[in-house]
Amino acid sequence: MMAQSKSVAIVGATGAVGKEILSILEERDFPVKNLRLLASERSAGKTLVFKDETLEVEELTDESFAGIDIALFSAGGAVSQEFCPVAIAEGTICVDNTSAFRMDKEVPLVVPEVNPEEIKNHKGLIANPNCSTIQMVGVLKPIHDALGLKRVIVSTYQSVSGVGTQGILELEDQVKDISKGRPVTSKNFTSQIAFNAIPHIDSFIENGFTKEEMKMINETRKILNHPDLAITATTVRVPVIRAHSESVNVETEKDIDVSDLKDLLADTPGVSLIDDPSSNKYPLAVNASGKDDIFVGRIRRDESVERGFHLWIVSDNLRKGAALNAVQIAELLV
Amino acid sequence: MMAQSKSVAIVGATGAVGKEILSILEERDFPVKNLRLLASERSAGKTLVFKDETLEVEELTDESFAGIDIALFSAGGAVSQEFCPVAIAEGTICVDNTSAFRMDKEVPLVVPEVNPEEIKNHKGLIANPNCSTIQMVGVLKPIHDALGLKRVIVSTYQSVSGVGTQGILELEDQVKDISKGRPVTSKNFTSQIAFNAIPHIDSFIENGFTKEEMKMINETRKILNHPDLAITATTVRVPVIRAHSESVNVETEKDIDVSDLKDLLADTPGVSLIDDPSSNKYPLAVNASGKDDIFVGRIRRDESVERGFHLWIVSDNLRKGAALNAVQIAELLV
After folding, report:
1. Among this protein's residues, is B131 annotated catalytic?
2. Domain boundaries, chain A
3. What are the tens digits of pLDDT across the range A151-210?
């Protein structure tokens, strides 16, 4: 085991996903030889605890990757674009949690339960898909394998932690301000997010979709290796702290009984079926927070189309949607 | 004008919708000859103000409808089931805001901008559709008339005021409890609604759908007089105080340019187009609260199907979704 131990760097260690990576490396007893915590100048000097050891956060520079085997990047697309090439030149394998390289044909885009075989094609960089994509493809993959996916329509209910710790603080501040009758301030969202639903995540592009919606569309096609999949998305921010929920409608090529579809998903590694309406059991964001699995429920036949099914998919966007998936990729590299 | 003045009763006058009816009757200067406020024994004796006059709430009994021309019911299905027949026997025309009679073939189900002609067929009772249905059909109607609707898939983001004032209080209490680190209590929802999204509104039926979802399906078919319309729904409660949002995907029989579709909806009475992504303009629940219109935006072509379009529809569930629509029906009766 010690022979396989790796020198690991976390880029963006003080962010919401960075901190989650740190705790998941510890939880899963990842074979860490040594750990380097990297962040912007502003965060350098802060300390974080890993396995009872207090580590100081260092400023990210061109010299940061000397001797590092695996670097987990989670500090925004611009940072990845600048520093992944630097790390790769040092022989470091990068697991990038940003959208910077995901659609690059040379870059594997990996969910370990879905397409682990892609990892072997890496050229120094493996991309971690978008949070909203990861939880959906985890459920779509076994359906596609068993039945063939014909069309996917998704509407999301995404938590504020999707923009990081500052999103959580902004929601909490707004709730406080509203309870005291004070005006609210919006910085990370285009409008008040407390007690609201904002149909806008990431920026708009010419076709009227947001980049977040196009990520769900394009990344799903790439991960499922189904470039022509008919798929569309509407992504919405809701005042939830943690865990994204998704209302997913699928059409399949082959038919299946609803009970067999439930069995199929219950048997899928990484997926947990919670589907007992008679006792009010279905996946919920507050229950998924801090958990590893992708939760699915409300499975039922959509009578408005042949071979149509509804799914309600919930997962912790900071864990399976980001940090856990990145660490799982790193585990495949060991 | 005075010749047309009506004696009006509000059944459930102290509820969230009842209070809204009272203020809308005043705002729109409805020709009220006299007004009777009715509620359960528990609320009898409370007072409410109408046009500077303080009125006492009376207990609803079999004698409540003597001399009443129009009664607006908003006190739950069981109350309507018991007292609408009593009122009708007195010659009172009932406008019922509950689901008790909506799917009755003898009962017109009316959105005044959509199917006002149905009112003439009434036999003493006109049903007000479900809040989530009203705002959707207001937008679907002009699309159906111009292009023919082929399929509709909706996922909702519904506010807590949908269950009345107690829903708002429960959300506010939970937010307070969470901020103080206290455990939350759930009464009106099956789980914590603060910082959560609950895919469950009204009770479940055998096909795995909720009654709320089936209301959207069946009421839309009835109102559009399109009994075979392919339509499906997933209804979700979110921690929003007021106004429901809906992610609606439609397929049409005929094609249309997105810009022409926007023009069509901009020209629809009761519908207001807010659709300028480049300046972050789209309908939002917090902005729709207290407004009369149905707001639509995020209109774009869904490339996953022929002649597919996305719509984001928001409206105040207590106003157009309930009280305003009921008063508009009453106006057609005058």
Report:
1. yes
2. 2-128+322-333, 133-317
3. 999 999 999 999 999 999 999 999 999 999 999 999 999 999 999 999 999 999 999 999
pLDDT at A68: 98
**pLDDT at res. B1:** 45
Q: CA A172, A18, B193 angle in degrees (round to 5)?
A: 30
Strand (E) positions, A181-243? 230-234
Taking alpha carbons only, the member of B310, B258, B253 closest to residue A232 is: B310
Stretch A65-69: mean pLDDT: 98
What's the rounded Cα separation, in Å, for the pair A202 and B277? 12
What is residue B4's predicted lDDT score, i.e. its pLDDT?
Answer: 85
- The reply to whether the predicted model has a pTM over 0.80 is yes
Whether the per-residue pLDDT at A128 is higher than 80: the answer is yes
The token pair that represents B214 in the structure block: 């089936």
CB contact under 8 A, A249 and B312: no
pLDDT of A3 above 80: no
Is residue B13 very low, low, confident or very high in pLDDT (cuts 50, 70, 90)? very high
Let me know: does A267 contact A260? Beta carbons within 8 Å. no
- ipTM score of complex: 0.96
CB of B55 within 8 Å of a chain A CB? The answer is no
Q: What class does CATH assign to A2-128+322-333?
A: alpha beta
The structure tokens listed for A214 are 């196009």
Nearest-by-CA chain B residue for A207: B300
State the first-to-last Cα distance of chain A, in angstroms, to the nearest integer: 10
H-type alpha helices, chain A: 16-27, 77-89, 131-147, 165-179, 211-223, 258-266, 285-288, 324-333
Preferred mutation among A159, A187, A234, A316 to probe B, highest tally of B CBs within 10 A: A234
The yes-or-no verdict on residue A2 having pLDDT over 70 is no
Number of H helices, E strands in chain A: 8, 14
B133-317 matches B2-128+322-333 in CATH topology: no
Cβ contact (<8 Å) for B197 and A153? Answer: no
Looking at residue A150, its pLDDT comes to: 98
- CA B41, CA B263: separation in Å to the nearest integer? 50
Q: What is residue A4's predicted lDDT score, i.e. its pLDDT?
A: 85
The CATH number of A133-317 is 3.30.360.10
> Average pLDDT, stretch B39-44?
96
Distance separating alpha carbons of residues B273 and B298, to the nearest angstrom = 10
Beta strands A244-252 and A230-234: pairing type?
unpaired
- Tell whether the torsion through CA atoms of B222, B224, B230 and B236 is positive or negative: negative
SS3 A38: strand
B113-120 contacts at long range (C-beta below 8 A, 24 or more positions apart): B113/B138, B113/B141, B113/B268, B113/B269, B113/B270, B113/B271, B114/B138, B114/B141, B114/B223, B114/B224, B115/B141, B115/B223, B115/B224, B115/B225, B116/B332, B119/B329, B119/B332, B119/B333
